[in-house]
Write a structure and sequence with these properties.
Its cofactor is pyridoxal 5'-phosphate. With 357 residues, the protein is α/β, with parallel strands linked by helices. The chain contains 13 helices and 11 strands. The site of 4'-deoxy-4'-aminopyridoxal-5'-phosphate has 13 residues, from helix 5.
Length: 357
Amino acid sequence: MVKETVKHLNPYVPEPTLSELKKQHGLAKLVRLSANENAFGTSPEVTDALDKWHFASANLYPDSNAEQLRSNIATHFNISPDSLIFGNGLDEIIELLCRVILEPGDEVIDPALTFSEYRLHSEIEGATIKPAPLDKAGFISLAAVSRLVTDRTKIIWLCNPNNPTGTLIEPAVIETFLNNLPTEITVVVDEAYIDFSENGHASVMALTKQFNNLVVLRTFSKAYGLANFRVGFAVCSEPLMGYLQAVRLPYNLSTFAEIAATAAFRDQTFVEQTVETVINERKKWEHFLMEIGLPFYDSAANFIFFQVNRGNADDLYNELLQNGYLVRNGLKPGWLRVTIGKPADNLAVQALIAGWC
Ligand code: PMP
C-alpha cells in the first residue's frame, strides 16, 4: 500500500500548541525558546506591506516565479536571478533535493548530529545515511566526511552553522573540500543561521558560480522573523537548477508570503539589529555557562547547546517549563538547546538554571 521506507517512519504525533502546553501546565505565560525563531519579532515594514495588499486578488494564483522577491535577492547577493528557487520553507527544498537526486541504494552523508530533515527525506527516497562524527568540540569534520565518500555517495549535507551545535565551518575550508570532491556529488550547505555568524561573511553562496555541484540554502524563518510565512530559497547553477524547477510544485509561494518576504528583505536594518542583539546576548550566555561550569559548544547561531552536568536534562527541562520557558530536549542525552531570547528572558532562564545547579 505504501513504500517500505515510509512504513518504517515514526507515527505522526501532533506537537502540542503553546496554548495547549500552557493549559496542561497551568501557566499564565510560556515563552518558546525551543524552535530557534526570531525572539525580536518581524520588521514593521512587513505589516505595512501586507496591509496594502488587495484581498480582492485572493482568487488568483500567485506569480509562480516570485519575480519581485527573486530580483531583490539576486541584486542584493549579486547572483543571477535564474540561480534562485523558492520553497514553502527550506523544509520543502530539502524534500525537493532528495526527490530530484536520490534513488534507492544511494548513499548520503550528514553530520552525526544535525538537522533531522536531511535524514528523513533521504531515507524516504531509499538512500542510506552515513553519519560523519563531529570532532570533540562539536564541529563538523570534513576529514570525517571525506572518509565516508564512496562511489554511491550522492548528497553531502553540511549545516553551517550546524543545528543543534551552532558550530561554524569557515568558507575557505568548504572551498578546499569542494575542490577535492568528485563533481557528481551534490554538496548542500544549509545556511539557515548564517546571518548570526560573527563575521557575517561566512557564506559560501558566491561559490555556486564556480561549483555546479554546490547548493546553498537560506530561509526567512530565522533572522528575518518570518517563520509563519514559510519562505526559503536555494541558490545553485545549471543543470541542477533546471531539474529542481521542473519538479517543484508550481504555486508553492503565496503572494502574501512573497510580499512579506520582499518587505522583510528590504528592511536590512531590522536584520542587522536582530543579529547584533543576538550576538551580544549569545556572549552573555557563553559567559554565564562558563561561570557556572556547564559545557557548551561554540555557537555562531541564534541558539546555544549546553550539557546539563547534574541529574539529567529532563529534570532541568521540566523545571524551566514549570517556570514558563520551553527549551529543546532530546537531541543528545544530557544536553539542552536554548534559543537566544529577549534579554529579560535570557536572564530569567539563566537565573533558573543557576538556582537548579
Ligand atoms: N534548516 C535548518 C538547519 C533548520 O534549523 C530549519 C528550521 N528549524 C530549517 C532548515 C527549516 O527552515 P524553514 O522554516 O525555512 O522550513
